Amino acid sequence: MAVFAQAGDKIVIAHRAASGYLMEHNLPSVALAVAMGSDYIEQDLVMTKDDQVIVLHDPTLDRVTNVAELFPGRNREDGKFYALDFTLAEIKQLHLKEPYPNSGRFPDTNKNLQLTVPTFREELELIRGLEKTMRRDIGIYPEIKQPWLHRKEGKDISRAVLKILREYGFKSKEDKIYLQCFDPDELKRIHDELMPGLQMELKLIQLIDDNNGHETKSLQWGEWVNYNYDWINSKSGLRTLSASVSGIGMDKSMLVDGAGNLLRPELISDAHSLGMVVHAYTFRREKESLPSYAASFEALLELFYFKVGVDGVFTDYCGDAVHFLQKRSPGPAPVPVSSETLPPQPTVVPEPPQPPSVPLAAPVAVPGVAPASAPVPTAEPVANPPATVIPPEPAQRAIPHPAPAPVPGSEPAIPAAPAPESAVTPAQAQPSNPVPAPLETKYR
Ligand code: CA
What we know:
The protein is of the alpha/beta class. The protein is built from twelve helices and eleven strands. The chain is 24% helix and 12% strand. A hairpin with a 5-residue loop joins strand 2 (40-47) and strand 3 (53-55).
């Protein structure tokens, strides 16, 4: 009954659950991603004022909820409503909304369908239940969001997340979980201190940002500065990293340039030789999200899975990606994978057996082409430019090694924050303190 057959060991990671079909991060969306056969379901994790771990992509609630209507005046100086300033009971009053309703995604409805922000425990409970009824293992791929921001507020999100995972039986490297984070220092702390203390040993994934990203900051000489990832982008750096993590996750633009050329063909084999997997993000099928070198979503998947050679992709369209892999056999070149894709067989002639001249090498249906019977609807952009569109992929970030690439201007402006005079301790941190950046617009 299960529909999660894959090509080789390639995996599909449901980015923010089935976000392309049913909004991001809510329980029905998780169930849908499971039913579509995703190998792993992603959870982005942040904490509430009363120390609950919730599944929310941004540290702020503005983009995906009606918080501004329900709690006017509860924003910080930067105008944003931080989950850290609200109790779970308050957050449960909020209704989720599709941030990109006019791009062909789920219709913007906030009347009779009221989806809410789930807690991490709720999501794990749902997944454990579905594992039982669907008789299969369902992977989870939680991301600890911005430990530095939580630490600034006196919260140890990593410890809180690990304790919940342990409650639900995630303890060893054999368990179907990848725990991801952009913060290398925090991952090392998790590996060296937190997990041993809790008698856990999970597979960790180092997410690699560009040096102009804002996912990871550290306090240096009284100033919050962006993390510099350059050291990871070398063979020795990768080797060092492999001592504590099981793989790396990176934007696809770090692997393929705007013309479709492989930027670092050796990276995947280097990682594999060190026993690490490589997962790339984020794969979307809307026309405005497709790189110019990819004629279709399926062509993009074909390129990354089988030419670049990544082990998995984070995608908003998990159902389409699962379907793609089901139709695609493993191997270096596209070949027919079933009778459906073979060219019509010639009528058998009773005369001497023909040499194997069945035109296998003739043009055949490329698995990368979307089959007409795809089980999920495609999401084409509407003709009229919508009021809210999915932010385009960053134009080319270029190779992060050796020089940091500039962040293109397509990212919404992030207000600069005043550098603190001195190190902020948790005790000093006040909820009203401006933080270096409201990161809700980073489209991970
Ligand atoms: Ca994420």
